[in-house]
Each structure stands twice: as structure tokens, then as C-alpha cells.
Design goal:
Blueprint lengths: L1 H16 L1 H15 L15 H4 L2 H57 L2 H49 L9 H36 L5 H10 L11 E9 L6 E12 L2 H10 L5 E19 L8 E24 L2 E4 L3 E18 L6 E18 L2 H27 L4 H21 L7 E23 L3 E20 L9 H9 L31
Length: 535
């Protein structure tokens, strides 16, 4: 007690001897309670509206805003639930696909020795590596070849005008550019040769196997080592209307979401049992117009189902995103996305199996077809977003113009809808022809063979002026080949440093859209296994 009193008296004496310490102590005490502002002081901050309100007024406003606060929380919760459910559906679908890959792996292990299985694994992996290198080099080679051709043409014209010498005169920089182009050409030919050898050796290995048709088809598609595409969860919700003025014509507008798998992940799953982590999700606005015919082959038969043979020619416009997603154990991580405008020309035949006694009949469609695809790729940055939105605005203007013209001529609502889709498409083609608002990349794809199993639900839901609501789930397996065009204006000259940088990078690795390639089986070549790497 005595010690406490001494300390207390000492502190009090110190404060009394220093008045400013006493004032600071009071100020600190006031700060602990709360800051008081004197609004009579002209230098004090202005009083805001909330501070002027009484407690009753604040309580009333809080009560009025409570429903909006509840709506915000409900929307956030709904978004989280939908995201979780969609991720769960994607994981389930990919899980089923991975299970089928595991069955293929078991079949291969049964018919191959361990060493043969490992050799086949190394062949597929080296095929992927050489194909990726070939894509990079060929893209740069094509671009630099145009520059060299223009350079030689300019120098030839210059010397012809001089009328003195037929030998072109080049500067040191131009000679260096042509020398680098020769080096690039040699690298291009080397990568092409190695890639072709790997494909030929895989052809030889597959031809000696006797697996099931599914396993053999999968091996031939993955053989290319390019980009394997199977939209396992390709879902479409669209409004469909017929065009009464044209028999068999129709138009469709809606949304479509599809999944793309890179071949490297599929091959690693097949040969090394590694899960497929990297996928690409592509949400699109879907605009489609086409014409078709069908024949009911069960018209004179008593069957509980209808079987129809159908043939369709169609044109599709897609506007959306390509989103790379990493499905790691910790969760989903989205990487840098791209804007995509996709144009599809398709011919297909189908066998439709329909239940005729259901109010919302389920259709099973077995489809075989061919198509061509052109994709315009924009980066998700300020420049890319601006160009992409301008492209959409121009197409929207074309759609409105043609739709208004059709409406002025007295066309029906379904015909006006078809004209709007056609107007947007024609405007896009015109913009491409005059090369206005160009993308960073153009990807041309030819798919001579596509196989699909589709499930559709035809509802009785009618939306005024837009048509009948239909749902379609597509399981597609496509084989084809792709050509990429890099049309950016600011690419550097192909110096050795630029070449090495290009070989170490992968500018289009994030797209991996529908890149496949078909080839003819050739058993006459040999590819040394000593040059093959492991998965």
C-alpha cells in the first residue's frame, strides 16, 4: 500500500509540475471517449446529412433499406450456390470422362507389355511437344515470309527502275533479316520433319493394336498431339422459330456453354493417371439460322417412339469468352481470358429418336457432319475490350437495320427475328472484308468429320416474338485441322533473339479451342525412341 501511494503521489506531482502533460492526458481521455467537433468553428469540417439526423430518423432509414440489404445478401448467396452447383456439375462430368480414360488405360495395359506401353506414352508426348513447337515456328515463319517477299519485291522494282543491274541491292539490316529468315526456315522444316516422324511412328504402333473402337478412335485423335477438344458439357438454351416464307428454314437465339480439354492433360491422364486440372470454359451468346428436311421412317409402323432421318445446313454466330480454369485441390482459379467471335458453317445428318406421347418429349439425336469454323480472338485488356465491343455494336446496328426493313415490308415476327440474325452476320462479314476493327488472332478450323450424341428437350414454353424454349445437351467428338493467323501490326522482325523468345513462349496456348488435325496412315517411316521424352 505504501509503495502504491508513493507511486501515485509521484505521478500526480509530476503532472502538476507540467501543465502541458496534464492537458495531453485530458486530450487522450477525450479521444478514448470520442472526437467532438465544434461546428461553430469556421475551420471545422461541414456537418453531413447523417450527422444532422436524429436517432429516430436514422432508425427509419435503416428500416426502409433493410429489404434492399436482404436482396443483396440473397443475390450473393444465390450466386455462390449457382457457382458451386455449376462447378459440381463440371466436376461430375469430367469425372465421368476421366473414368472412361481410365478404362482405355486398362485396356491398353492388357494388350501391351509394360515397355510397349511406356514407349507409346513417350511417342504421344513428343508428338505434342513437336506440334506445339511447329505451331509457334510456323506462325512466325508465315509472318516473316510476307515481310521478306515484300522486301524482295521492293528491291526488284527499285533496280528495274535504275535499268543498270538486275542484282538487288540490300542494306546490312536487310541482309541480316534475310539471313535470320533462312535460319527460321531451317528450324521450321526440322520441327515439321520431327513432328511427321512422330505421327508416322504412332500410326505404325496403333495399326498393330487390336483394341475396341472407342479406344482406337481416341488414340487416333490424340495422335496429332495438337489440341484435343471434347465439349463434355456443351449445353444450349435457346428460343427457336420457323420461317414460314421458306419451308424448312428456322432461326435460333440463346446461350451456349461448352468445355474444352487440352490434349496434354488427356494424354497425361491416359498414360500417367494424372487428373485433368486445366480446362477451358466458353460461355457464348448463340445465334443460329439454317434450313433442313426430315423423313419419318416410322410413319407406317406401330412404335412407341418416332425415328426420323434429318439433314441440316446451318450458320452459327457465337459471341463470348474463352476462360482458362485450373481445377486444383484448393479450388478453381481463373486465368487471363479472351474475347471470342466464332463463325460456324455446318452440314450434318442425324437420326432422331423421339418419344411421341410425352408433353415435353425427350429427343435423342445421333449426328454425323462436317463444318468450318473461323474464330476472331481479342485480349481482355483495354484495347481488346474496346475493339470487341465495337464489333458487337456494329453487328447490333446491322441486325436492327435488317429487322426494321423486314418489319416495314410486313414480315412476321419469326421472319423479323431471322432477318436480325442474318443482318448481324452480314455486317460481321463486311467488317472482316474491309479489315476494320481487327482482332489479335484469327483461327481457321476445318472439321471434315464430327460425331455427336445430343439430348434435347422441346418444351411448350412460348416467348412472344422469340419462339419456343428448347434445351440441348451435346456430346461431341471432332477431328480436323487448324490454321492460325497472327495479324497484330506491332510484331518485331524475326531476329535470332525474337526467334528464341517465340520458341520459348506459347501465344495461343490459352485458346486451345478446336485444334485437331487428321492424317493418312503411313507405316514406312521410323522415329527413334531415343529422342523421345517422357510424359
Amino acid at each position: 500500500m505504501k509503495i502504491d501511494n508513493v507511486v501515485s503521489n509521484g505521478q500526480l506531482h509530476s503532472i502538476e509540475n507540467h501543465p502541458h502533460e496534464q492537458n495531453r492526458s485530458r486530450s487522450e481521455g477525450e479521444n478514448e471517449i470520442g472526437l467532438t467537433i465544434n461546428y461553430q468553428d469556421p475551420d471545422a469540417p461541414p456537418e453531413n446529412i447523417i450527422e444532422k439526423m436524429s436517432e429516430g430518423e436514422k432508425s427509419l432509414i435503416s428500416t426502409l433499406l433493410r429489404p434492399f440489404d436482404m436482396c443483396i445478401h440473397l443475390c450473393n448467396d444465390a450466386k455462390q450456390i449457382l457457382t458451386k452447383n455449376y462447378q459440381s456439375r463440371v466436376n461430375e462430368t469430367l469425372g465421368a470422362f476421366e473414368k472412361s480414360i481410365e478404362n482405355v488405360q486398362l485396356e491398353l495395359r492388357d494388350i501391351l507389355e509394360c515397355e510397349e506401353f511406356n514407349n507409346l506414352s513417350r511417342l504421344y508426348m513428343i508428338c505434342i511437344e513437336y506440334k506445339e513447337m511447329l505451331d509457334k515456328v510456323s506462325l512466325l515463319y508465315e509472318k516473316e515470309k510476307i515481310k521478306i517477299d515484300n522486301l524482295q519485291t521492293q528491291n526488284s522494282d527499285y533496280n528495274n527502275n535504275k535499268k543498270k543491274d538486275i542484282t538487288p541491292e540490300y542494306s546490312e539490316a536487310q541482309l541480316k533479316q534475310m539471313s535470320d529468315f533462312e535460319v527460321l526456315g531451317k528450324k521450321f522444316n526440322d520441327k515439321k520433319r520431327l513432328y511427321e516422324l512422330s505421327r508416322i511412328e504412332i500410326n505404325s504402333a496403333i495399326s498393330n493394336l487390336n483394341p475396341s473402337s472407342l479406344t482406337k478412335s481416341l488414340l487416333y485423335i490424340m495422335k496429332e498431339g495438337a489440341h484435343f477438344r471434347t465439349p463434355l458439357l456443351l449445353e444450349q438454351l435457346a428460343l427457336t422459330t420457323s420461317v414460314p416464307e421458306i419451308p424448312g428454314a428456322y432461326s435460333k437465339a440463346g446461350i451456349q456453354i461448352q468445355i474444352v480439354l487440352p490434349s496434354r492433360g488427356v494424354i497425361k491422364k491416359l498414360f500417367n493417371s494424372k487428373p485433368i486440372e486445366n480446362i477451358f470454359i466458353q460461355p457464348f451468346v448463340h445465334l443460329e439460322a439454317g434450313i433442313g428436311t426430315s423423313m419419318d421412317i416410322t410413319k407406317n409402323m406401330e412404335l412407341p417412339i418416332n425415328i426420323k432421318l434429318a439433314a441440316t445446313a446451318l450458320r452459327v454466330n457465337h459471341f463470348g469468352l474463352n476462360i482458362p480454369v485450373n481445377r486444383s485441390i484448393e479450388g478453381w482459379h481463373c486465368e487471363k481470358a479472351h474475347y471470342v467471335i466464332e463463325l460456324v458453317n455446318r452440314l450434318e445428318t442425324a437420326v432422331n429418336v423421339t418419344g411421341d406421347k410425352l408433353s415435353t418429349p425427350l429427343d435423342l439425336q445421333l449426328k454425323v457432319g462436317a463444318d468450318t469454323v473461323r474464330q476472331f480472338v481479342f485480349p481482355c485488356n483495354k484495347s481488346g475490350t474496346t475493339r470487341y465491343m465495337v464489333q458487337l455494336a456494329l453487328r447490333a446496328a446491322g441486325a436492327m437495320a435488317t429487322g426494321y426493313s423486314a418489319l416495314a415490308l410486313g414480315a412476321t415476327a419469326s421472319t423479323v427475328k431471322a432477318c436480325c440474325i442474318a443482318g448481324a452476320d452480314v455486317t460481321g462479314v463486311f467488317c472482316e472484308m474491309i479489315k476494320v476493327i481487327e482482332p489479335d488472332y484469327i483461327v481457321d478450323i476445318i472439321e471434315p468429320l464430327t460425331l455427336g450424341i445430343d439430348f434435347s428437350v422441346n418444351t411448350n414454353i412460348e416467348v412472344p416474338y422469340l419462339g419456343t424454349l428448347n434445351y440441348l445437351s451435346m456430346q461431341r467428338l471432332n477431328s480436323g485441322f487448324v490454321v492460325e493467323h497472327d495479324i497484330k501490326k506491332h510484331n518485331p522482325v524475326a531476329t535470332q533473339q525474337a526467334l528464341d523468345t517465340t520458341l520459348d513462349s506459347n501465344p495461343m496456348n490459352g485458346m486451345e479451342m478446336r485444334h485437331r488435325k487428321s492424317s493418312v496412315v503411313n507405316k514406312g517411316a521410323f522415329f527413334p525412341l531415343s529422342d523421345v521424352t517422357t510424359v
